[in-house]
Amino acid sequence: MTDTLDTAVDPETTEVEEALEAFLAAIDPSALSPVEYRGARYDAGLAWVHFPEGFGGLGVRPKLQAVVERRLREAGAPPPADTLFFGLALAGPTVVTHGSDDVRHRLLRPMFTGEEVWCQLFSEPGAGSDLAGLSTRAVKDGDEWVVNGQKVWNTIAHLADRGMLVTRTDPDQPKHKGLTYFAVDMHDPGVEVRPLRQITGEAEFNEVYLTDVRVPDADRIGDVGDGWRVSMTTLMNERTTIGGGGGTRPRGSGPIAEAMRIWAAKSDKDPVERDKLMKLWIEAETLRLTTLRASAAARAGNPGPEGSVLKLRFAEMNKAIYELCLDLLGPAALVDYDYTMRRSDIIGLEGPPGASRKMFLRSRANSIEGGTSEIMRNILGERMLGLPGEPRTDKDQPWIDVPRN
Ligand SMILES: Cc1cc2nc3c(=O)[nH]c(=O)nc-3n(C[C@H](O)[C@H](O)[C@H](O)COP(=O)(O)OP(=O)(O)OC[C@H]3O[C@@H](n4cnc5c(N)ncnc54)[C@H](O)[C@@H]3O)c2cc1C
What we know:
By secondary structure, the protein is of the alpha/beta class. 40% of the residues lie in helices and 13% in strands. The protein is globular.
């Protein structure tokens, strides 16, 4: 296993390199506004390189995206704003996989440029792990759908222009079959976004109330009743992105670098703590290499259940690293954190240097967001190891007949 991505020359690599050189000959990324730069990049097929031509891509292997990112970074291109996470990593792959050409044309470019910020409207008070049990209703009215219901834990919904919305369109079907997926306009007067405060003091996420929201049928993603399959594309991409974030970074960077930094500054070094630190360092490196191996193996399209391995290990490891950071800090861990309520415009999966007090708290959410660690273990057991499934008594029952609180 090599430390770097294999970029041996082949026709697809050559195509990407030529597209990059032509792009950089015409455009200086550091001289344009982010929207202009990202728009030109989309038009050159260098947004998501594995997407089809004409939709921000060149139709090549997904791993060549890393080549694009590296080359553009070297040319002075700014990184995307944190708020673009849901569009770039979740909504983009979902729209390109399941959307009609009209939907792809209208939604993908502003999503990539950042002119439209996206959020994810999946979870509900009665449907988190059991997402297929959700209750938000969409009823067809002419060429529109009327949506009513409540979503919850919706990260950056307060900044979003569009939401990935899963609704129930046929309550008489079993729960996985009566769902339909839409791109909802978050500025519709029927959309109300209320802050939810987290253990960190910040309100990164929200509850979202939908009251008689009118969604054009033209903004449907996938077929009516196919919302579960469409949602799976979103979730598989979410898990792989959360878990695989460290794959393109150098060895020893990310949260483990923070633990190493605190360790190096300590005057009284305890051998038991050194042992814990070394175990976590090795685990961080193993996860980084596993992510590299998974991305090198991906030939095309969307990730599968293997993303759950990365998500599970990332979550458990991140929590352990930040816990060790506080142990290493000792009494100093108890001071210098401000719990003031703030509206956050970042998605706090990892913190900057010096943020381990906050990140100890924030990382508690890593094993919940994007699917809990228990659910990741169920997926690994059933879909990767082929172990017997959980009993699912309501699987074939019409959703309307399933007992609920
Ligand atoms: C920081 C953060 C950001 C989030 N952002 C978003 C967002 O942007 N959009 C969005 O839609 N949602 C978001 N979520 C919601 C997240 O997806 C859900 O919290 C998660 O899926 C769990 O659902 P739940 O909270 O309803 O818990 P529940 O599903 O009620 O689970 C409660 C407990 O029971 C366990 N459990 C449940 N079912 C099983 C089972 N079958 N086997 C074993 N154990 C089980 C769970 O693991 C958990 O420990 C976010 C959550 C967090 C913490």
